[in-house]
Structure prediction request, 102 residues.
Amino acid sequence: MTSHPSRPVADLFSADGLLKAIPRRPARREALLAHLAATLFDADRSYRESEVNDALRTVHEDFSALRRYLVIGGFLARTKDGADYRRQQRSDTPEGAIPAVA
Prediction:
């Protein structure tokens, strides 16, 4: 398997800072989600769902899809009742690997 150098996520954003589109390719989407988790959410605090939505809305109108991808991808943890979210560290996944999604 040949590894391709990672392209920066900056090219996914327009000049005004908005996300052009949510990438369909898993590797690109994974890089974007890592970037969003690191730049929009502090690791040491909890967020209400409305706060997560507001943060994601600053980069793309489909904030609910981004929120879902962040949770499924393991970048954000959510309480069972869906009231609180917290950024997760993903040390379980080797760099560049894509976790399986059930």
Observations:
- Residues 11 and 17 are 10 Å apart (CA to CA).
- The helical segments are 26-40, 49-57, 63-72.
- Confidence is low (pLDDT under 50) at residues 1-5, 92-102.
